[in-house]
Amino acid sequence: MSSIFFPPVIQQIDSEIVANADVKLYILRLDIMHPKINGNKWYKLKYNLLEAREKNISTILTFGGAYSNHIYATAAGGNIFGFRTIGLIRGEENTPLNPTLQFATEQGMELVYIDRHTYKKRHTQALQNQLKQQFGEVFIIPEGGSNLNGMRGSIEILQTVKGFNTICLACGTGTTLAGIALSLNQEQKVIGFPVLKDGDFLNQDINNLLTNYLNSGLPTPVYSPAPWQLVCDYHFGGYGKVTKELKLFCQDFQIQYDIPLDYIYTGKMFYGVMDLIAKGFLKSQSLLLIHTGGLQGNLGLQGSL
Ligand SMILES: *Cc1c(COP(=O)(O)O)cnc(C)c1O
Asked: For residue 174, what pLDDT is reported?
């Protein structure tokens, strides 16, 4: 399944601020692994698709908002690897379809809209049973691909990448961070930047994910996670919120380094890291920032910015 992807690209970022701060800064470009499936969402999808295939289930059903990177990746991945896909989309249908849902449809995903009240019950057994009745035999992947299979795939993100002492990434559910923490050694550490407001709650969520994974019997390269921490100050108002300052930062970053950032996830993390460096934190570190993709989401925001 991995053979369709380009090998990982790591780029060094050179700037005066970085050099003056005695920091080495590198970016892992998961955004350019594949023209359609990219970023951490592929890693979170991989073992879900493999489990579905193993169980001979040919239909994938999953959930997401109207701009979801996960819906986008599942639609593309389903198409490439021969699954029928159904996307349960939160809220009402809006036409014309936004670029995310337009793409999903082109990949063959069937879209079904569900009201916000029902959407909140997406994790309950009752709703899952109902969906199985309605759609027949389906393999259900949770929103964002955030389950143990998702963590298992995330362990592989840095499989061939060695030698950095601090890894930084943006966090939604923390599933990707948890997988990465299980792929590093104890001399390395992970810093997560939650994109949600009041992201402190993720500390507990990530601890639970790690405990569940280690109790699951799924393969893991290490049995104790590398040290990790969250920096919760760079959410810019919360999930999906974009300020002018953030937007300017992303545009400037692209001009300077020719690397596009998305406003929902990677832009906030990169802003946070650059700010911490400028303030004298992270000294003498060799940093690897993970570009987790998500650029498709910018298309949907164009009108509102
Ligand atoms: C979903 C997503 C994340 C967050 O992943 P989690 O595993 O939920 O923390 C980060 N970056 C991008 C671009 C994403 O699409």
From this structure: 98
E-assigned strands of the chain? 10-12, 24-29, 59-64, 84-90, 110-114, 139-141, 166-171, 189-194, 228-230, 286-291
Tokens encoding 230: 């969250």
pLDDT at 264 (0 to 100): 97
Q: Which residues of the chain have pLDDT under 50?
A: none
| C-alpha span between 38 and 120 (Å, rounded) | 27
Q: What's the pLDDT score for residue 304? A: 57
Query: Which residues, in sequence order, are CB contacts of 95 under 8 Å at separation 6+?
Result: none
Best mutation site among 29, 31, 171 for ligand 1 pocket (most ligand atoms within 8 Å of CB): 171
Q: Residue 191 has what pLDDT?
A: 98
Q: How far is CA 254 from CA 197, 260, 261, 286, in A?
A: 26, 5, 7, 22
Tell me, using a 6 A CB cutoff, whether residue 293 lines ligand 1: yes
Average pLDDT, the chain: 95
Cβ-count burial 120-133 (b if 16+ within 10 Å, e if not): eebeeeebbeebee
**What token pair was written down for 81?**
């690897």
pLDDT at 8: 84
Decide if 144 contacts 70 (C-beta within 8 A): yes
Which among 126, 6, 115 has a CA at the least distance from the CA of 63? Answer: 115
Report how far ligand 1's centroid is from the alpha carbon of 20 (Å): 31
Dump strand ranges (E) for 4-69: 10-12, 24-29, 59-64
Spacing of C-alpha 51 from chain mean position:
20
Atom index in ligand 1 nearest the CA of residue 192 equals 9
Pairwise CA distance, residues 27 & 158, whole Å:
12
pLDDT per residue as tens digits for the range 45-75: 999 999 999 999 999 999 999 999 999 999 9
Rounded-to-integer distance, Cα 30 and Cα 161, Å: 12
Distance CA 211, CA 216 (A): 9
